[in-house]
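BUG: 3D viewer hangs when loading the predicted structure for this chain

Environment: internal workstation, default settings.
Expected: structure renders.
Actual: progress bar stalls at 90%.

Input used:
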Amino acid sequence: MTRRITRAKGQITDSGVPFRMPNGPEREQRLTVVLHVLYLIFTEGYAATSGPGLFRADLSAEAIRLTRIVRRLLPGDGEVAGLLALMLLTDARRPARTGPAGELIPLAEQDRRRWDQAKIAEGVALITAALPRGDVGPYQLQAAIAAVHDEAASSEATDWPQILALYDLLLRISDNPVVALNHAVAIAMTHGPGAGLERLGRLEADRRMAGDHRLEAVRAHLLEMAGHRQAAREAYQAAARRTMSLPHQRYLNDRAARLVGGRLDQEGTDRDSPN
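C-alpha coordinates produced before the viewer hung:
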Protein backbone atom coordinates (compact mmCIF):
# COMPACT_ATOMS: atom_id res chain seq x y z
CA MET A 1 0.00 0.00 0.00
CA THR A 2 2.89 2.36 0.83
CA ARG A 3 4.44 1.72 -2.58
CA ARG A 4 1.12 2.38 -4.31
CA ILE A 5 0.70 5.72 -2.52
CA THR A 6 4.28 6.69 -3.38
CA ARG A 7 3.75 5.84 -7.05
CA ALA A 8 0.46 7.80 -7.08
CA LYS A 9 2.17 10.86 -5.60
CA GLY A 10 4.89 10.59 -8.24
CA GLN A 11 2.35 10.36 -11.06
CA ILE A 12 0.52 13.45 -9.76
CA THR A 13 3.81 15.38 -9.58
CA ASP A 14 4.88 14.29 -13.07
CA SER A 15 1.50 15.16 -14.58
CA GLY A 16 1.82 18.82 -13.70
CA VAL A 17 -1.91 18.98 -12.89
CA PRO A 18 -2.41 21.59 -10.13
CA PHE A 19 -3.93 20.24 -6.92
CA ARG A 20 -6.49 22.96 -6.23
CA MET A 21 -10.19 23.62 -5.89
CA PRO A 22 -11.63 23.86 -9.42
CA ASN A 23 -13.52 26.95 -10.49
CA GLY A 24 -16.51 27.76 -12.69
CA PRO A 25 -17.96 25.02 -14.93
CA GLU A 26 -15.28 22.53 -13.88
CA ARG A 27 -16.29 22.89 -10.24
CA GLU A 28 -19.98 22.44 -11.03
CA GLN A 29 -19.27 19.34 -13.11
CA ARG A 30 -17.15 17.76 -10.40
CA LEU A 31 -19.64 18.65 -7.68
CA THR A 32 -22.46 17.05 -9.67
CA VAL A 33 -20.48 13.80 -9.84
CA VAL A 34 -19.59 13.91 -6.14
CA LEU A 35 -23.21 14.47 -5.09
CA HIS A 36 -24.41 11.68 -7.37
CA VAL A 37 -21.93 9.20 -5.88
CA LEU A 38 -22.95 10.19 -2.34
CA TYR A 39 -26.60 9.76 -3.32
CA LEU A 40 -25.89 6.27 -4.70
CA ILE A 41 -24.02 5.26 -1.54
CA PHE A 42 -26.91 6.43 0.62
CA THR A 43 -29.51 4.73 -1.58
CA GLU A 44 -27.69 1.39 -1.43
CA GLY A 45 -27.45 1.75 2.33
CA TYR A 46 -31.12 2.62 2.75
CA ALA A 47 -32.45 -0.05 0.39
CA ALA A 48 -29.86 -2.74 -0.28
CA THR A 49 -30.22 -4.18 -3.77
CA SER A 50 -29.23 -7.69 -2.68
CA GLY A 51 -28.53 -9.80 0.36
CA PRO A 52 -30.40 -10.84 3.51
CA GLY A 53 -30.87 -7.37 5.02
CA LEU A 54 -33.21 -4.59 3.98
CA PHE A 55 -30.63 -1.86 4.56
CA ARG A 56 -26.99 -1.20 5.45
CA ALA A 57 -26.94 1.48 8.12
CA ASP A 58 -23.15 1.83 7.85
CA LEU A 59 -23.38 2.98 4.23
CA SER A 60 -26.20 5.42 4.93
CA ALA A 61 -24.33 6.88 7.92
CA GLU A 62 -21.14 7.27 5.90
CA ALA A 63 -22.99 8.99 3.05
CA ILE A 64 -24.56 11.43 5.53
CA ARG A 65 -21.17 12.07 7.18
CA LEU A 66 -19.48 12.83 3.86
CA THR A 67 -22.36 15.03 2.71
CA ARG A 68 -22.07 17.02 5.94
CA ILE A 69 -18.42 17.64 5.06
CA VAL A 70 -19.37 18.90 1.60
CA ARG A 71 -22.04 21.06 3.21
CA ARG A 72 -19.45 22.66 5.53
CA LEU A 73 -17.20 23.37 2.53
CA LEU A 74 -20.05 24.77 0.40
CA PRO A 75 -22.61 26.20 2.85
CA GLY A 76 -24.32 28.32 0.20
CA ASP A 77 -24.95 25.55 -2.35
CA GLY A 78 -28.66 24.72 -2.52
CA GLU A 79 -28.23 21.24 -4.01
CA VAL A 80 -25.74 20.21 -1.34
CA ALA A 81 -28.23 21.32 1.29
CA GLY A 82 -31.00 19.55 -0.61
CA LEU A 83 -29.09 16.27 -0.74
CA LEU A 84 -28.28 16.37 2.97
CA ALA A 85 -31.92 17.19 3.74
CA LEU A 86 -33.10 14.32 1.52
CA MET A 87 -30.80 11.87 3.30
CA LEU A 88 -31.87 12.99 6.77
CA LEU A 89 -35.59 13.01 5.97
CA THR A 90 -35.37 9.56 4.40
CA ASP A 91 -33.09 7.98 7.01
CA ALA A 92 -35.39 9.28 9.76
CA ARG A 93 -37.90 6.56 8.80
CA ARG A 94 -35.41 3.70 9.01
CA PRO A 95 -36.28 2.57 12.58
CA ALA A 96 -39.87 1.89 11.45
CA ARG A 97 -39.06 0.20 8.11
CA THR A 98 -38.65 -3.28 9.55
CA GLY A 99 -40.64 -5.46 11.92
CA PRO A 100 -39.43 -7.77 14.71
CA ALA A 101 -38.30 -10.44 12.22
CA GLY A 102 -36.65 -7.98 9.86
CA GLU A 103 -39.63 -7.92 7.53
CA LEU A 104 -40.26 -4.86 5.34
CA ILE A 105 -42.96 -2.47 6.54
CA PRO A 106 -44.16 -0.13 3.76
CA LEU A 107 -44.34 3.60 4.36
CA ALA A 108 -48.12 3.70 4.77
CA GLU A 109 -48.06 1.09 7.54
CA GLN A 110 -45.10 2.37 9.55
CA ASP A 111 -45.41 3.48 13.15
CA ARG A 112 -44.53 7.14 12.73
CA ARG A 113 -43.79 7.45 16.43
CA ARG A 114 -40.60 5.54 15.71
CA TRP A 115 -39.35 8.04 13.14
CA ASP A 116 -36.32 10.10 14.18
CA GLN A 117 -37.81 13.51 14.88
CA ALA A 118 -34.40 15.19 15.27
CA LYS A 119 -33.41 14.20 11.74
CA ILE A 120 -36.80 15.30 10.41
CA ALA A 121 -36.46 18.70 12.08
CA GLU A 122 -32.95 19.18 10.70
CA GLY A 123 -33.96 18.06 7.22
CA VAL A 124 -37.03 20.31 7.13
CA ALA A 125 -34.95 23.29 8.30
CA LEU A 126 -32.33 22.65 5.61
CA ILE A 127 -34.78 22.39 2.73
CA THR A 128 -36.91 25.28 3.98
CA ALA A 129 -33.83 27.53 3.95
CA ALA A 130 -32.51 26.25 0.61
CA LEU A 131 -35.64 26.42 -1.57
CA PRO A 132 -36.03 30.23 -1.69
CA ARG A 133 -32.39 30.71 -2.78
CA GLY A 134 -31.57 30.58 -6.49
CA ASP A 135 -32.41 27.77 -8.89
CA VAL A 136 -34.11 24.68 -7.51
CA GLY A 137 -32.44 21.36 -8.37
CA PRO A 138 -33.56 17.73 -8.23
CA TYR A 139 -32.18 17.00 -4.76
CA GLN A 140 -34.07 19.97 -3.32
CA LEU A 141 -37.32 18.81 -4.93
CA GLN A 142 -36.84 15.24 -3.69
CA ALA A 143 -36.14 16.59 -0.22
CA ALA A 144 -39.33 18.68 -0.38
CA ILE A 145 -41.29 15.55 -1.29
CA ALA A 146 -39.72 13.65 1.60
CA ALA A 147 -40.60 16.53 3.93
CA VAL A 148 -44.27 16.37 2.93
CA HIS A 149 -44.30 12.66 3.77
CA ASP A 150 -42.47 13.13 7.08
CA GLU A 151 -44.61 16.02 8.27
CA ALA A 152 -47.90 14.17 7.68
CA ALA A 153 -49.40 12.97 10.96
CA SER A 154 -50.64 9.80 9.25
CA SER A 155 -50.68 8.12 5.88
CA GLU A 156 -54.24 9.32 5.31
CA ALA A 157 -53.18 12.92 6.07
CA THR A 158 -50.47 12.93 3.39
CA ASP A 159 -50.84 15.88 1.01
CA TRP A 160 -50.71 13.88 -2.23
CA PRO A 161 -51.71 16.82 -4.50
CA GLN A 162 -48.69 18.73 -3.22
CA ILE A 163 -46.45 15.69 -3.76
CA LEU A 164 -47.83 15.33 -7.30
CA ALA A 165 -47.10 19.00 -8.02
CA LEU A 166 -43.51 18.55 -6.81
CA TYR A 167 -43.07 15.46 -9.00
CA ASP A 168 -44.41 17.44 -11.97
CA LEU A 169 -41.61 19.97 -11.40
CA LEU A 170 -39.03 17.24 -10.84
CA LEU A 171 -39.89 15.51 -14.11
CA ARG A 172 -39.23 18.72 -16.01
CA ILE A 173 -35.58 18.77 -14.92
CA SER A 174 -34.82 15.09 -14.36
CA ASP A 175 -35.09 12.40 -17.04
CA ASN A 176 -35.13 9.63 -14.49
CA PRO A 177 -37.38 6.55 -14.83
CA VAL A 178 -37.60 6.08 -11.05
CA VAL A 179 -38.90 9.63 -10.72
CA ALA A 180 -41.46 8.81 -13.43
CA LEU A 181 -42.41 5.66 -11.50
CA ASN A 182 -42.99 7.62 -8.30
CA HIS A 183 -44.89 10.22 -10.32
CA ALA A 184 -47.29 7.47 -11.42
CA VAL A 185 -47.87 6.53 -7.76
CA ALA A 186 -48.58 10.17 -6.90
CA ILE A 187 -51.08 10.35 -9.77
CA ALA A 188 -52.81 7.20 -8.49
CA MET A 189 -52.99 8.51 -4.94
CA THR A 190 -54.41 11.82 -6.19
CA HIS A 191 -56.64 10.81 -9.11
CA GLY A 192 -57.21 7.08 -8.59
CA PRO A 193 -55.44 3.84 -9.56
CA GLY A 194 -56.73 3.86 -13.14
CA ALA A 195 -54.95 7.14 -13.87
CA GLY A 196 -51.80 5.80 -12.24
CA LEU A 197 -51.86 2.60 -14.29
CA GLU A 198 -52.33 4.60 -17.49
CA ARG A 199 -49.24 6.67 -16.68
CA LEU A 200 -47.34 3.53 -15.68
CA GLY A 201 -47.94 2.08 -19.14
CA ARG A 202 -45.76 4.79 -20.62
CA LEU A 203 -42.77 3.43 -18.70
CA GLU A 204 -42.94 -0.07 -20.11
CA ALA A 205 -40.98 0.92 -23.22
CA ASP A 206 -38.19 2.53 -21.18
CA ARG A 207 -35.24 0.17 -21.43
CA ARG A 208 -33.76 1.58 -18.24
CA MET A 209 -36.60 -0.06 -16.32
CA ALA A 210 -36.26 -3.44 -18.04
CA GLY A 211 -36.00 -6.14 -15.40
CA ASP A 212 -36.45 -3.68 -12.53
CA HIS A 213 -38.72 -5.18 -9.88
CA ARG A 214 -40.05 -1.75 -8.87
CA LEU A 215 -42.06 -1.40 -12.08
CA GLU A 216 -43.96 -4.63 -11.41
CA ALA A 217 -44.26 -3.85 -7.69
CA VAL A 218 -45.92 -0.51 -8.39
CA ARG A 219 -48.16 -2.11 -11.03
CA ALA A 220 -49.20 -4.75 -8.50
CA HIS A 221 -50.00 -2.14 -5.87
CA LEU A 222 -52.11 -0.07 -8.26
CA LEU A 223 -53.92 -3.14 -9.55
CA GLU A 224 -54.69 -4.12 -5.97
CA MET A 225 -56.01 -0.63 -5.30
CA ALA A 226 -58.25 -0.98 -8.36
CA GLY A 227 -59.58 -4.33 -7.11
CA HIS A 228 -57.95 -6.51 -9.81
CA ARG A 229 -56.88 -9.29 -7.48
CA GLN A 230 -55.56 -11.90 -9.91
CA ALA A 231 -53.61 -9.42 -12.02
CA ALA A 232 -52.18 -7.84 -8.87
CA ARG A 233 -51.13 -11.24 -7.53
CA GLU A 234 -49.32 -12.07 -10.77
CA ALA A 235 -47.56 -8.70 -10.77
CA TYR A 236 -46.42 -9.15 -7.16
CA GLN A 237 -45.01 -12.57 -8.06
CA ALA A 238 -43.24 -11.14 -11.10
CA ALA A 239 -41.71 -8.39 -8.96
CA ALA A 240 -40.54 -10.95 -6.39
CA ARG A 241 -38.76 -12.93 -9.10
CA ARG A 242 -36.92 -9.84 -10.30
CA THR A 243 -35.49 -8.54 -7.02
CA MET A 244 -32.30 -9.88 -5.43
CA SER A 245 -33.20 -8.49 -2.01
CA LEU A 246 -34.49 -11.26 0.25
CA PRO A 247 -36.65 -8.94 2.42
CA HIS A 248 -38.27 -7.51 -0.71
CA GLN A 249 -38.85 -11.02 -2.07
CA ARG A 250 -40.58 -12.07 1.14
CA TYR A 251 -42.68 -8.90 1.25
CA LEU A 252 -43.82 -9.21 -2.38
CA ASN A 253 -44.59 -12.92 -2.07
CA ASP A 254 -46.56 -12.21 1.12
CA ARG A 255 -48.57 -9.57 -0.73
CA ALA A 256 -49.31 -12.07 -3.50
CA ALA A 257 -50.32 -14.76 -0.98
CA ARG A 258 -52.70 -12.33 0.75
CA LEU A 259 -54.67 -12.04 -2.49
CA VAL A 260 -55.43 -15.75 -2.70
CA GLY A 261 -59.09 -16.30 -1.80
CA GLY A 262 -61.32 -14.09 0.32
CA ARG A 263 -62.34 -10.61 -0.68
CA LEU A 264 -60.18 -7.55 -1.12
CA ASP A 265 -59.35 -5.69 2.07
CA GLN A 266 -60.62 -2.27 0.98
CA GLU A 267 -59.40 -0.66 4.19
CA GLY A 268 -55.85 -1.76 3.51
CA THR A 269 -55.47 -0.84 -0.14
CA ASP A 270 -54.56 2.81 0.38
CA ARG A 271 -52.08 1.87 3.08
CA ASP A 272 -49.85 -0.30 0.93
CA SER A 273 -47.95 2.24 -1.12
CA PRO A 274 -44.50 0.86 -2.01
CA ASN A 275 -41.70 2.28 0.11
